Amino acid sequence: MNTAKPHNRICILTEEDAQNFTVGIEYACATRRHRHYSRPKVEQMVKDGELRWLGKHRRIATYNQARTWMKVYRRNCYGETVSCNMQLVRGGGGF
Prior knowledge:
Layout: E1 9-13, H1 15-19, E2 35-38, H2 39-47, E3 51-54, E4 60-63, E5 67-75, E6 81-90
Parallel strand pairs: 1-4
Antiparallel strand pairs: 1-2, 3-4, 5-6
């Protein structure tokens, strides 16, 4: 009989880290290299379609369509910056 308590802290990986993900985490993760959310919050975000689970143990999740803000410069013919705007681009996961 399996009476293991589910982990309450879920690892949230960036899109890049999720692509390189090969093995699960079998211990309580305490690293600061990625974010951690509570299980109820992650389950709600998965239900809303914002996150998806990685692996079968449901200890790691990643963003479905990660977007982040990036500076975009417009330059003149001399290479001088004319304006700087922010653009939402694919990747990053909002970290």
